[in-house]
Amino acid sequence: VGKADTSMPILQIEVSDSGKMAAVLEDNNANYINMYDTNGEKIYSVKTTLSGDGYPIDISISSDAKKLIASFIKVIKTNVVFYNFSDVGKNETERVVGGFNYDDIIVGDVKFVNDTTAVAVGENVVSIYKIKEYPSLEHTINIDNEIQKIFCSDQYIGLVLDNSESGDPYKLVVYNISGKHIFDTTFGIQYTDMQFDGKSVVMSNASTFVLLNMS
User: Fold this and answer.
1) Cα separation of 153 and 194, whole Å?
2) Which of 82, 169, 195, 209 has a beta carbon 3.0–4.6 Å from 204's, enabling a disulfide?
3) Sign of the C-alpha dihedral, residues 31, 123, 79, 193?
4) pTM of the model
5) What pLDDT was estimated at residue 186?
6) Secondary structure letter of residue 164 according to DSSP
7) Percent of the chain at pLDDT above 70?
């Protein structure tokens, strides 16, 4: 369909439902978040600096490719930044429409679960953001145990937590995208993959799969 050549190493790439791609490129003292069309043509380029913005850890692009969330780590904090590539972001510096700081916490995973809802996962916190054009923090879920895995659908957020001190080694906790607790259970299966299938959770490894309902 198309091909895009970059002059810098690619740290991460995300593809929207429409086929547009956002790529994080690495340079010596700066990084670039470039967006490409399906034919490989560069649509936008956002420059970030290590001294100012920090080092990019994770990005996620909305399905319509108009919004992007990125987490940047600095020495003592993480910045979660929202970009808007629609007409709304044209007059904003580097198309930044909002940012949120996390002191003394690494936010290693950001994810759009639908076009207007994004999730940022820190070491002990899950933040749920709404972004129609500009972002707002809607819900904060504080987590007591170590987060080992997160997986999402357009309706639910699943967390696998360390539960080794209380019996089964793992605890699965599910919230909806409004931050409401749906259910939790402990388990001991050594999983390699976990995902939502409607209102069920599918857990699997090389030889076994388990289907859990959420009732």
Assistant:
1) 11
2) 209
3) positive
4) 0.86
5) 95
6) G
7) 100
Q: How far is CA 175 from CA 83, 124, 127, 153, 184, in A?
A: 26, 15, 12, 11, 9
Where residue 40 falls (left for φ over 0; alpha for ψ -120 to 50; beta otherwise) is left
> Which residue carries 């790439």 as its tokens?
13
Measure the CA angle with vertex 164, ends 161 and 167; round to 5°. Answer: 110
Q: Which residues of 162-196 are buried (b: 16+ CB within 10 A; e: fewer)?
A: ebeeeeebbbbbbbebeeeeeeeeebeeebeebeb
CB 47 within 8 A of CB 54: no
Q: Which of 153, 152, 154, 129 is nearest to 139 (CA)?
A: 129
CB atoms within 10 A of CB 158: 20
> pLDDT for 168-215, tens place per residue?
999 999 999 999 999 999 999 999 999 999 999 999 999 999 999 988
Sheet holding 30-36, edge to edge: 10-15, 21-26, 30-36, 42-49
Q: What is the dihedral sign for C-alpha 191, 195, 201, 207?
A: negative
Which residues have CB under 8 Å from 3's CB, separation 6+?
A: 40
Kindly write down the DSSP assignment for every residue of 85-105, as one continuous string: -SGGGTTSGGGEEEEEEEET-
Q: What is the pLDDT of residues 21-56, one digit of tens each?
A: 999 999 988 999 999 999 999 999 999 999 889 999
Query: Which single residue is written with the structure tokens 């994004």?
Result: 118
